[in-house]
Design goal:
Number of helices of chain A: 0
Shape of chain A: globular
Helix content of chain B: under 10%
Distance between the termini of chain B: 32 Å
Largest interface: A-B, 23 and 26 residues
Strand content of chain A: over 45%
Structural class of chain A: mainly beta
Number of strands of chain A: 12
Order of helices and strands of chain B: EEEEEEEEEEE
Helix content of chain A: under 10%
Order of helices and strands of chain A: EEEEEEEEEEEE
Radius of gyration of chain B: 13 Å
Structural class of chain B: mainly beta
Oligomer: heterodimer
Strand content of chain B: over 45%
Distance between the termini of chain A: 41 Å
């Protein structure tokens, strides 16, 4: 079975601090996709990144960076120099691509990030 | 216009009432999904559909039904709403050949009183 675990329920930091959101996944598929989404207080889901299982290169986009490690089944997300606008719920998600794949996107429980001024 | 449109955006209904949440898309995707979000539980899959004739239960389908009226439309019904169905509901489409893979609607916030 596929599973995504975000062990950090809530994180509170002061503006300009760096913060890392952890994501651990389980899957038997050899090909799969990992995602991060941001959910601001308004409620919509904002796509941040998609990673394919065969591409372990880390990704940096501005203040955001992602560390994908297949050896530990982790896909962690780091915000550098956090800002108040980063306050949101962040979801990690997994979509398998094996035999019988249904394309279902499996979400972690979410991590609520609060950035204080 | 949004690629995936959900109506209504907000709804308050009474226990026992039948309610339908609607989803329409302009992405041209075959695959559509309904998710439910509860605090601390993330998003959980209710139903999914690969095309008009292919509808499947997700992990929490009890108390819900769906209808895929056309490729572009996928509706979720609560036959007899109960308070623990109060949640934020999302519709999504997918095409893993595209960069983002999944496109989500803006959500429907449903309150059952």
């Amino acid at each position: 079975a596929q599973k995504v675990t975000q062990a950090q329920t809530e994180i509170s930091v002061v503006e300009k601090e760096d913060v890392t959101l952890d994501c651990v996944y389980e899957t038997r598929d050899t090909t799969y996709y990992l995602f991060w989404y941001k959910q601001p207080p308004s409620g919509e889901l904002v796509f941040l990144i998609r990673r394919n299982s065969f591409d372990e290169q880390n990704e940096i986009s501005g203040r955001y960076s992602w560390n994908f490690q297949k050896s530990t089944s982790s896909f962690n997300f780091t915000i550098t120099a956090s800002q108040v606008v980063d306050s949101a719920v962040y979801f990690c998600a997994l979509s398998g691509h094996g035999s019988g794949n249904t394309g279902k996107l499996i979400f972690g429980q979410g991590t609520t990030l609060q950035v204080k001024p | 216009d949004a690629d995936v449109t959900q109506t209504p955006r907000n709804r308050i209904t009474k226990t026992g009432k039948r309610i339908m949440l609607e989803c329409s898309q302009t992405k041209g995707h075959d695959r559509m999904y309904w998710y439910r979000q509860d605090p601390g539980l993330g998003l959980r899959l209710i139903y999914y559909s690969f095309d008009v004739k292919d509808i499947n239960k997700g992990e929490i389908s009890d108390g819900y039904s769906v209808s895929r009226q056309a490729q572009a439309k996928f509706s979720l019904s609560l036959e007899s709403a109960i308070p623990n169905q109060t949640a934020l509901y999302f519709c999504a489409t997918s095409d893993l050949g595209r960069e983002r893979g999944y496109t989500f609607g803006s959500g429907t916030r449903l309150t059952v009183v």
